[in-house]
Amino acid sequence: MIHAVPEMFKPKIRVEYPPDNKQIFEEWFYDNAYVQVQEPWIKRHYLPIFWTSFQVNNDYGKGRKMHELQAYIDGLDRSKKYFTITQYDDGPLVDFKDLDIVVFGSGGGRIDVPIPLVCMPHPYKFDIKERKYLASFIGSITHPLRQQMVDAINSLPKDQRDRYYIWTHRLPIEKFCEIMADSKFALCPRGYGKSSFRICESLQYGTTPVYISDEFIEPFDETFFEFGTKIQNPYEIHEALDYMDSNGWEREGHQEWWYQHMYTFEALKTRILEWLKRLS
């Protein structure tokens, strides 16, 4: 059942991130799972608050309207059970108190069921016969781990360093995608949030994601090693990737399977609905 949430708590987000992500998953799920969440086997009420949009639009959770959201949460019927979905980096910025709610989350904060950080596919396609780079990263320095990663790559001998494409300034999104598609591995360091959209983007292009973080979000508690690899210490990146490359670890088509089965909007919707079957 869908709980009737006031429209003020379901705004459209004011930013498009990453580029080409015309609608974030929270909003898409509401539009595309309307029938399924009302099936009798769904025992929890769907609370369709667009946490990311509302909190970003309200000074990233510091705006005065956050008090209205907290008051709304406080007024919910405590005899009912709920679920909600958020990708916001810090999760829902409210106090649920004694509310029985399950949070499907991809960014951080309160997460009861971890889900992947997904975005709409990029429209660009490339005819690449042989990938040029061992690994690549294009992005800004939004977390100390990213700077450590860049420093670690820059400290390599030139012949090893030349196997990477590292760029920390803005590039056109089509070029971003082309470099990723031309790389065997995509460096996906966390930013402010614990996860990275690059995991989803790399899988779209059949590139193996390298998830670099100090805290990992494992989608649906499934092992990340099935389709990528995790690294905590940036100075271990080259040794790990060189070994994997030498042993033919990256498998063409394997990433595509995982993309289609967990990292598209439709696939993630299916996964969430399946998980809801298990929840009382």
Unreliable sequence segments: none
Total number of domains: 2
How many runs of DSSP E, i.e. beta strands?
Answer: 9
Structural class: alpha/beta
Largest sheet: 5 strands, parallel
- Overall mean pLDDT stands at 94
Describe this structure in a few short sentences.
This protein is of the alpha/beta class. 32% of the residues lie in helices and 15% in strands.
How would you summarize the topology of this molecule?
Blueprint: H1 25-32, E1 45-46, H2 51-57, H3 66-74, E2 81-86, E3 100-105, E4 113-114, E5 133-138, H4 144-154, H5 158-161, E6 164-167, H6 173-181, E7 183-189, H7 197-204, E8 208-212, E9 229-231, H8 237-246, H9 254-263, H10 265-278
Parallel strand pairs: 1-2, 2-3, 3-4, 5-6, 5-7, 7-8, 8-9
Helix pairs in contact: 7-9, 9-10
Structure notes:
The chain has helices at about 25-30, 50-55, 65-75, 145-155, 160, 175-180, 195-205, 235-245, 255-265, 265-280, and strands at about 45, 80-85, 100-105, 115, 135-140, 165, 185-190, 210, 230. With about 280 residues, it is of the alpha/beta class. It folds into two domains: about 5-115 and about 265-280, no CATH class; about 135-260, Rossmann fold (3-Layer(aba) Sandwich). It has a five-stranded parallel sheet with strand order 6-5-7-8-9, sandwiched between helices. It has a four-stranded parallel sheet with strand order 1-2-3-4, with no helix packed on it. Strand 7 (about 185-190), helix 7 (about 195-205) and strand 8 form a beta-alpha-beta unit. It is elongated and about 65 Å long.
